[in-house]
Each structure stands twice: as C-alpha cells, then as structure tokens.
Amino acid sequence: MVSLLGNLPVLQMGTHDVGGYEREWIAAEIRLASAASGTTDCSFADEVAASVIGYLENHFVDMTVRLEDVAVCAVRCLRAIGQGLVADALELGPPPVSIRLGEIAARIGYGFELGFYRQLAARIDLLVQPGVRFVRVSGVGDAVATLRGGMRAKTPRRRKLVVVASQDVEAELIDFVRGAVGQACPASELRISIS
C-alpha cells in the first residue's frame, strides 16, 4: 500500500492524478468565493480548509478523491457554520500547478537549450489544463546556471571567467514560460508566479 504525506488521498481530476494539494489551496478558493459573494469577513477560510483536510486525512476511506468530492465537503462545512452565500459561490478549481525549472535543466544538462525548451513546453502542456488558476514556476536561476554554466568567455583585459548574458537568458526563459502557460490555459483569472 502506498501512503502519501499526511495520509491524504490522491486528488483525481479527470483522467489525471495530482498527488499533492494543501490546505492553503482550499483556503484561497474559499477566499475567492467569499469575495465573489460579497462577504467581507473571511476569517473562517483557514478553519474550513483545515476541517476539509482533516476529514480527508482521518475519515475518507478511498485512496483517491475527486475534485468534486472535495468541493462538496467544503460546501457542507461552509453551510454548517452559516456561510451559505459563500458555499453557493464556491467553485473549487484545481490546486496550483508547480513547475521546477532547475529539475528540468538538470535532467537535460549543460548546453542543450533546445531540448530544455522542448521538455519545458511538454511539461507545461501536461500540467496546465483548463480550469487551473495558479501556476507556480521556480528555479529560474538554477535553470540558467545549469544551461549556461559552461558558456563562459574570457575578457581581454582581465583573465577572469564570466557568465555570458545570463540576464538575457533569464528574461528569455521567463517570456517563454509566460507565453507557453498562457497558450496552454488562456484564462483571464490565471495567475503565474515565477521565481
């Protein structure tokens, strides 16, 4: 038997399984629903999210849980505490997608930028599906260092090695990620965090 971190069941969305999800995702979705319903006080979001996670960890019997089942659980919790308006406005979207550029670059290796961009585009197409609201991309500096780490030039006056145009590569990589994510999921509410 496979045991996941915190004994949470695997979240199943369509034909794809997502192994990791956190309380913060559910709390953020409740805050969005609260704002959509016009409720200004949203201090209950963390407690409701903790209740949902606690139920899934301790009482849910299956190894997989559908996104719809998580939404039903959150709606029941919201109604139980008298937040029917927020429950009616809750449209639980998929959890945030995380893409680690440093890992992709490490697998591809030094000097294979075209292979890196192809692998990155394939990963984005696989992970970023319609309905995704938040994409977290990390490791830009690590990816650039891996891809360009050996591309060094000697300066004529100083015999010191310097990395060639790493800021340009970093800007190009960020533009590529934004474009590829926007193309894979052209949603107006999609947020992208790149670090």
Write a concise synopsis of the structure shown.
With 195 residues, the chain is an alpha/beta fold. The chain has eight helices and eight strands; from the N terminus they run ββααβααβααβαββαβ.
Structure description:
Helix 7 (140-148) packs across helix 8. This protein is α/β, with parallel strands linked by helices. The chain has helices spanning 23-37, 45-58, 67-80, 84-89, 101-108, 113-127, 140-148, 166-184, and strands at 10-13, 16-18, 64-66, 97-100, 134-138, 152-154, 161-163, 191-194. The protein has 8 helices and 8 strands. It has 2 domains: 5-89; 97-194, no CATH class.
Topology:
Blueprint (H helix, E strand, L loop, with lengths): L9 E4 L2 E3 L4 H15 L7 H14 L5 E3 H14 L3 H6 L7 E4 H8 L4 H15 L6 E5 L1 H9 L3 E3 L6 E3 L2 H19 L6 E4 L1
Parallel strand pairs: 1-3, 4-5, 5-8
Antiparallel strand pairs: 1-2, 6-7
Helix pairs in contact: 1-2, 2-3, 5-6, 5-7, 6-8, 7-8
Principal-axes geometry comes out as elongated
Number of helices, where a helix is a run of at least 4 consecutive DSSP H or I residues: 8
Low-confidence stretches: 150-164
- Let me know the average pLDDT: 81
Domain module count: 2
Key attributes of the depicted protein:
alpha/beta, three-stranded parallel beta sheet, 195 residues, 8 helices, single chain, 8 strands, three-stranded mixed beta sheet, elongated, 2 domains
